[in-house]
């Protein structure tokens, strides 16, 4: 036990009229939305790294947080950090958490020493989970922070780094399965390039594709029933990352025969860096059949880098969950908060309040999305807009050829008149619910 969260009671649902900053106003886990408990729709997970491993630095300044588990280079403080993490899980009552290996254990001088530390912490997690309801949404490997990864992991020009990467992912997959994790995520933070002058892109993509096939093969070998997820991001820290966005990732998966084995873990902040909206990335993944899970954080629209902030925009969140619900909702995926406090937010209650607010925003967005689906206005508008394609002659045209279509246009004198897309009316419609 620690005293970091001393005096902070478990968070309760108090309703929309509550003014208590440490109470849920909209997130009621047992509220039924579209026939399912809210908790089971949203499947919230706390991200271990930003909540506990991040020290408050930014590209222009160092550590601002002083925590009982600092410095994070000893097993003793790693266990203190775990104690604090599970105390926060008890306070918030969210059903899941997630981690990178490097965030939960100190780095050793050798792979064997790091693995020993990692396995000890996994056992420590298992003991704590055995007496709690919290489960593991996903695990992943940090293959971007240490200097060994400076030129990538699976795409590294040094085959020894590729080997180190494979061994690292194997251990993290083993640990994820041991803790009952429901997904395993790969985020290639440095799987890209800084300059093409020293990059053989074709070779690197082939190595990355082979690596991911190895991951899928190992999943089946050990009987892991969870999803394998790739998380798209266009840039930062690399100039150009190979997993740029949902569409790029799908093309990569198709090229290497993985489109039926791997899904995507989408992040709002990464969508913004790619020049997209979050709803675009979700709708793209849904249309391609690879929507797996989401990182619910946002960027500052006035900053050109990944600021990892808690969600605070109900309309954006509502449209995200609209497409998730239309896709059938999460199965093994969920909503993790890959978000961090601002470096001036130093106190324990800041960390709790940030998650309370984020969970409330998601709950409001979910209810708005469900209300839009139940009302059916957007479905009706789409049906009307594409009604012409439901006619037999339109469907027949898709199985025709250019010459036959030419004859039809010239023979019937077809001269289509433009029709309104009714965008403003639809935007006003959405605003009725948010």
TrEMBL record:
Residue sites binding Mg(2+) 2 per the record: 267, 270, 306, 308
UniProtKB keywords: Carbohydrate metabolism, Cytoplasm, Isomerase, Magnesium, Metal-binding, Xylose metabolism
Necessary cofactors: Mg(2+)
Keyword Isomerase found: yes
A GO molecular function held by the record: xylose isomerase activity
Residues that, per the record, bind Mg(2+) 1: 231, 267, 295, 338
Gene3D superfamilies documented for this protein: Divalent-metal-dependent TIM barrel enzymes
Active-site annotation: 100, 103
EC number(s) given by UniProt: 5.3.1.5
Keyword Metal-binding: yes
InterPro entries assigned: Xyl_isomerase-like_sf, Xylose_isom_bac, Xylose_isomerase
Cofactor binding mode and count: Binds 2 magnesium ions per subunit.
SUPFAM superfamilies for this protein: Xylose isomerase-like
HAMAP family according to UniProt: Xylose_isom_A (MF_00455)
Official protein name in the record: Xylose isomerase
Organism in which the protein naturally occurs: Shimia haliotis
